[in-house]
Amino acid sequence: MARPDPRPQRRAQGELETQVLTVLHTADAPVTAAWVQERLDAELAYTTVMTVLSRLLEKQAVTRVREGRSFVWSPAADEAGLAALKMRKVLDREQDRRAVLASFITALPEDDEQLLRDLLDQATDESAG
């Protein structure tokens, strides 16, 4: 009988960033890294939470403001922006972006496909104007 692996399971790439962003979205105001750490399900070191927040800051997914001797953190986007960030992360992991996007589009319900076409047309019009 095989013994269970004593090592903790590794998280999928970006999973911890998504968890931190999700926690930030539950806050009513900018919060400290310690606040985020307390609300995450996993027992993470404060330094780990700070590293994740710093990476998210580099990706412009969060903002920070100095408050006293530390920083308070906020998500840079709303829930829709968070969903878009998740979608970009999935796309960034794939080798053939064209195939992934083509598969995504063909799997969309007709209404969503039309909405996407309208949004792309609108974006094209705004960038040309």
TrEMBL record:
Superkingdom to which the source organism belongs: Bacteria
InterPro entries the UniProt entry points to: BlaI_family, WH-like_DNA-bd_sf, WH_DNA-bd_sf
One Pfam family matching this protein: Penicillinase_R
Keyword vocabulary terms for this entry: DNA-binding, Transcription, Transcription regulation
Protein family per UniProt: Belongs to the BlaI transcriptional regulatory family.
Protein name: BlaI/MecI/CopY family transcriptional regulator
Source species of the chain: Streptomyces prunicolor
